[in-house]
Amino acid sequence: MMCTVVGDTFAPTWYLTNMKILLTGATGYIGKRLLPVLIMEGHEVICCVRDSDRFKVSRSLEDQVTVIENDLLDLKSLSNIPNDIDGAYYLVHSMSASADYQSLERKSAINFRHALNDTKVKHIVYLSGIVNESELSHHLESRKTVEFELGKGNYNFTTLRAGIIVGSGSASFEILRDLVEKLPLMIAPQWLKTRCQPIAISDVISFLYQCIFNEKTYHQNFDIGGPDILSYQEMLLEFGKTRGLKRWIFTVPVMTPRISSYWLYFVTSTSYKLAVALVNSMKVEVICRNNEINQILGVTPINYQEAINNAFKKIESNEIVSSWKDAYASSNNNDNISNHIKVPSFGCFKDHRTKSFVNKEACVEKLWKIGGETGWYSYNWLWRARGLMDKIAGGVGLRRGRTSVNELKAGDALDFWRVLYANKDEGRLLLYAEMKLPGEAWLEFNMIDGELAQTATFRPLGVSGRLYWYSVLPLHSILFNGMIRKLTQSND
User: Fold this and answer.
1) In this structure, which of 323, 341, 395, 471 has its CB flanked by the most CB atoms within 10 Å?
2) Structural domains of the chain, with CATH
3) What are the tens digits of pLDDT across the range 123-132?
4) Which DSSP category does 243 fall into?
């Protein structure tokens, strides 16, 4: 068998090529990594997205990618799925979208099944979770239900079940990293002794790609995992060892799920809804039944330590393809970007400032590095304090950072903002606030005629919104003045 190397994944070249494949979850962590592998093999890919404004395909992939906009909860919107598709991947979930995510996920699966029953699709592959225990969390029960509903269709169907996925930008990896790098000593709940079988993201992509159209996988489900079976505590300690950090972990029996969720929420970059779902799932062992799929597809998964090392190589070389933080699951807002990209003016408060710059290229480069490790160029301790206040109020805080050190694109998370529009040639960057606010807020940077225009817009919600604006007005004078001054300063 011959393989093509694509980044940290391996794409087989021994079977059906030039097929038309439907990719759901194309803006998600897995979908973004699977897409270039499918393209590399000459497939035409139909990307299903809920919001096309936050999905930009690179020019090198444009000829083989078609983007269609639909909502799996709305069956009518799925009518734009082409009839002549050959295969499909189901890579979506609603775990953090709503407290009622179980019913939403079931409805999405049923709608998807009905829509694809009307096409010529030959094979559907679904990425699920390992569900071998008799008692499952709500999250894993929901994944099992989705598998059941999708499996009723009149097409060939395969489920790949994975546990913890380790890779640069994955939710699991970022949570482990936050815990290990921030806490030399951890007083943790008993569920840290629960065992799991982590798998590298490169191996997940290999399994997904090599599974499609492989008749040996039809109408079956397989567990996929790496060679190591570890407790969460062992995973944390091994992570620390790999990073050269000595860590001490003590477990206590009296930490309730609610307290555990708050602990995970405040220490890591995860959202509270996701923290609750993860804590409930972490009490369930996720261990593979067998490795039959490894022999069928000829995949030998790498071990946990190697997966960590590979992830940090990507981080250090700034090659993070996708991050869970860029998904809407990391925010408090599930609206489409298009709903906010036009900044309102009526009934809004504005802080508008302009300043001349000497070098446009230098100004753009500074602007495109804003947030994350770089900070906001002025009184970063105040920004951190605002992030902490937001976290306490149940918001996203500043811990999401940014995916790439040098690049920004529509849909990216940027601390407690979401990138709505980013165009270096124009010198325009538009951000939408995802922090907890009594209203809505935008922050826009625009370069026109040798000047940088910086505009903060706030649309208040009732009296509380107006009181909020006036209470922070003195801070705006300090923060925004300092920020525009640093952005326009010459590097000479």
Assistant:
1) 323
2) 3-326 (3.40.50.720), 331-488 (3.30.530.20)
3) 999 999 998 8
4) T
